[in-house]
Structure formats: C-alpha cells, structure tokens
C-alpha cells in the first residue's frame, strides 16, 4: 500500500496516480486487485448506488456504512472517504466529531472535503487533529445549487485566478492531495504545476498528476448516461441485462435448474416417502 508521502513522490517523479471510487465490498475488491493507487468512497454513492438526484441527501452514517464495506474489500489500498453535505459546515465542534467517527470507524487514510474559503479552516483543524485531508475544487457537487448546475468551472479570468489561489491555499492549509473536477485542461495543467501536492483530475485534462473516475461510469453499471469526461471501459449493464433476461426465459421454459444444480437423495428413501 502507498502512503501519501509516496503518492506525493509519484507526482515528483512523473508517475501518474490512478484512483477510482468504490462503495461496497465487491467493487473495492476489484479496485484493489486491479492495482489502483487510491480508492475514494465518494458521496457520488448517493447518485450511483442509492438513486438520489444529487449528493445532497447523503449522510455521515451512509458514508461510514459504505466506507467500512470498502475497507473490508480493499484493506491494502490508500482509502479516502468523502465528508458529505453539511457535515463540515455547521460548527468546528460538529465537524470534528463527524470527522472523528468517519476516520475511526472506516479506518480511512484520509477524508475529502469540497471547497476553499471557510473550508480551509476545516482542512487545517483536521490535519492538526491527525486526519489527512484531500481537497476538492472546481465543480463541487455539494454546491450544485449555488453553482447553478453541473458545469465547467474556472473559464473566466477571475474564476480561473480564484481557482489557482484556492488550490495554493488548500496546500498551505495542509491538504495532502487535491481533486480538480470539471476544469479546463490547460488551467488544470497550470494548477498541477504551481502546487506541490498531487492533483487528481476528473474532467480536468491529461496533465493532472492522476485521474479519478466513478466506478459506475467506468464499467457502465446502473448509469444510463455518462458525463462527457468519463470513459466507459466496459458495459456491465448489457452483460447483466442479458444474464437476467436469460434467467427469466430459462425459468419460464423450465430450462433452469437442470440436474447439475440440484441435490440427490437415494431412490429407496424417496419411494418409501411416497408410500
Ligand atoms: O464523490 C465522488 O465520486 C467524487 C469524485 C467525482 C472525485 O468526489
Ligand atoms: Na464527492
């Protein structure tokens, strides 16, 4: 398993970091087997696993429940867990209590928070308390209603400058890595250059220090529309739908189960029972 120091070293030596989300035991196991450097229990679980419209309904308990399953599936991979909507905004006391529970109960290696500004204090305090923090800038889905939709961030000069300043500020506050979501590729490249922590991009072009994708997008599982920045490496929807339809047909036609799927008993015993 890599430490965050080693992940930082990968940036320095130009080795790309591969990160994927996971939300349960099987996806975590697959991620670990495939050799990803980092796993994220993203609050995207609200959408891709729980069927909500956004990440906003996701709770601390949801994150812990899924985080623990992921840890069991991938005990030897660097694990980051998202702090969900409003779990780090009400007061520093409540933030620390949520973070303590999430960090202890999931045995994560780091927690991730969205935004800069006031959130810089959160990054500082958690780091001070011994919890490594991954920052998340650009499109921050927990603020979708403030941002006015899921769209590319940092296109105007002022917004781009703000993003650069925020990225530097998260590093100064102690963040060990930065996720950049939906940012023009050349701006993301510049940000990756001006900060020393690894920048993991999603919809942020090829010049980030690493890439993260949502598991369900990557394998096309459950989702029916992919965001522009995602790449489908396979289609589990069609594999699973074909399998399920075949099962239904075989039950209806009595083709399943066949003898090989059943258990036997001695003929005399059954004759005896028939009387
Ligand atoms: O929740 C999530 O999946 C994320 C990634 C998109 C970075 O935050
Ligand atoms: Na997230």
Briefly summarize what is shown.
With 275 residues, this protein is of the alpha/beta class.
Which helices and strands appear, and what pairs or packs with what?
Blueprint: H1 4-12, E1 17-21, H2 25-33, E2 38-41, H3 45-48, H4 60-73, E3 78-82, H5 92-106, E4 110-114, H6 119-129, E5 133-138, H7 144-147, H8 157-172, E6 177-181, H9 185-194, E7 199-202, E8 210-213, H10 215-218, H11 236-252, H12 267-274
Parallel strand pairs: 1-2, 1-8, 2-3, 3-4, 4-5, 5-6, 6-7, 7-8
Helix pairs in contact: 2-4, 4-5, 8-9
Subunit structure: Homodecamer; pentamer of dimers.
Pathway: Cofactor biosynthesis; (R)-pantothenate biosynthesis; (R)-pantoate from 3-methyl-2-oxobutanoate: step 1/2
EC number: 2.1.2.11
Mean pLDDT metric: 97
**What would you report as the Rg, rounded to the nearest angstrom?**
23 Å
CATH superfamily of the largest domain: Phosphoenolpyruvate-binding domains
Give the SSE string: HEHEHHEHEHEHHEHEEHHH
Bound molecules: 3-methyl-2-oxobutanoic acid, sodium ion
For the secondary structure, the number of strands is 8
Number of helices: 12
Gross morphology is: elongated
Portion in helices: 40-55%
Count of domain modules: 2
> Biggest sheet, in brief?
8 strands, parallel, barrel
Assembly form of the protein: single chain
Strand content: 5-15%
Distance linking N and C termini: 64 Å
Pathway: Cofactor biosynthesis; (R)-pantothenate biosynthesis; (R)-pantoate from 3-methyl-2-oxobutanoate: step 1/2
Keywords: Cytoplasm, Magnesium, Metal-binding, Methyltransferase, Pantothenate biosynthesis, Transferase
Main location: cytoplasm
GO molecular function: 3-methyl-2-oxobutanoate hydroxymethyltransferase activity; magnesium ion binding; methyltransferase activity
């Amino acid at each position: 398993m890599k430490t965050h120091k080693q992940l930082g070293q990968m940036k320095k030596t130009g080795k790309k970091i591969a990160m994927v989300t996971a939300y349960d035991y099987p996806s975590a196991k697959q991620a670990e087997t495939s050799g990803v450097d980092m796993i994220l229990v993203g609050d995207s679980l609200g959408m891709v696993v729980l069927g909500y419209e956004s990440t906003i309904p996701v709770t601390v308990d949801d994150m812990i429940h899924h985080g623990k399953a992921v840890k069991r599936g991938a005990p030897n991979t660097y694990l980051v867990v998202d702090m969900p909507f409003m779990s780090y905004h009400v007061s520093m006391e409540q933030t620390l209590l949520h973070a303590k529970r999430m960090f202890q109960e999931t045995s994560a290696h780091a927690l991730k928070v969205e935004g800069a500004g006031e959130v810089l204090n959160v990054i500082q305090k958690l780091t001070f308390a011994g919890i490594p923090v991954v920052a998340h800038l650009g499109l921050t889905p927990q603020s979708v209603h403030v941002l006015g939709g899921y769209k590319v961030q940092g296109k105007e000069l002022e917004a781009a400058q703000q993003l650069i300043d925020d990225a530097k500020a998260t590093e100064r506050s102690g963040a060990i890595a930065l996720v950049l979501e939906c940012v023009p590729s050349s701006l993301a490249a510049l940000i990756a250059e001006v900060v020393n922590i690894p920048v993991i991009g999603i919809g942020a072009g090829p010049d980030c220090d690493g890439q993260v994708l949502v598991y369900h997008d990557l394998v096309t599982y459950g989702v029916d529309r992919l965001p522009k920045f995602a790449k489908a490496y396979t289609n589990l929807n069609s594999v699973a739908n074909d399998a399920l339809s075949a099962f239904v047909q075989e039950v209806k036609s009595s083709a399943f189960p066949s003898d090989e799927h059943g258990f036997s008993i001695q003929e005399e015993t059954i004759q005896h029972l028939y009387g």
